[in-house]
Amino acid sequence: MTNTTPSQSEKADRFRALHANSDSFIIANAFDAGTARILTGM
What we know:
By secondary structure, the chain is mainly alpha-helical. Helix content is 45%, strand content 0%. The chain is built from two helices and no strands. It has helices at residues 8-18, 33-40.
C-alpha cells in the first residue's frame, strides 16, 4: 500500500493556488453586534 497523504509542502502549494486566482471571493466575518450592523448596511 502506498502513502497517499499529501506532504505539508503539497498542502501549502494547493492552498496558495486556491488564493492565486483574481476571481477570489472575500466575505467579512462580524465578531460583534456593531460590526454586524455595519456589514448589514453594505
